Amino acid sequence: MICSVARSYKKIRGRNAATETFPGSLATMVVRARPGKPSQGLLQAGPLVFACALGKGGITSRKREGDGATPLAAMRILSGYFRNDHFAAARRTRLPMAAIEAGLGWCDAPQDRNYNRPVRLPCKASHETMRRADHLYDACLVLDWNIAPRKRGRGSAIFFHLARPGYTPTEGCVAISRRDMARLLPHLSRRTILKVVR
User: Fold this and answer.
1) How far apart are alpha carbons 128 and 130 in whole angstroms?
2) How many CB atoms lie within 10 A of CB 12?
3) Considering the entire predicted model, what is its pTM?
4) What is the pLDDT along the chain (198 residues), one digit of tens a residue?
């Protein structure tokens, strides 16, 4: 009896393999809600798909301040903030990034002249503190929602930032894991569009 020896072939990795790399900068990332889970989503970046968290109000075409919804829109990434002591990997990007200092805030008061702008703390108007204890803003990218022109009550502080464990809902932002953010950052630029669709 002659035994045949099976040949060994090199595995061909699929397009969604964890080792897949991007060809350069990403022009567009597309976000859509997961079926049956409106506050969680899937983010497609090139050939890869990542889990993400969305606003507790799901996706809306009528974004208003305080509704907790993620805008249905194509938003350009403008710049970012990072915690140098917690997320030094944020330096590896084409985006303009600034270190988050203790006195940095973001105004979310529609009647204030600094609405939807960074502010210095202390600030009398309603605001978010960017240096957070929960580390969600250790890497925080600013999207161009309601930036130019700014309209009162159309929503503020719409960021692309780090997600909580379990991808629990945001206040209207798009959030991904720390690992996925570190992987995407080198491929993002001011030309990258985050497109939220239905």
Assistant:
1) 6
2) 6
3) 0.88
4) 444 444 433 434 444 433 355 667 899 999 999 999 999 999 999 999 999 999 999 999 999 999 999 999 999 999 999 998 888 888 889 999 999 999 999 999 999 999 999 999 999 999 999 999 999 999 999 999 999 999 999 999 999 999 999 999 999 999 999 999 999 999 999 999 999 999
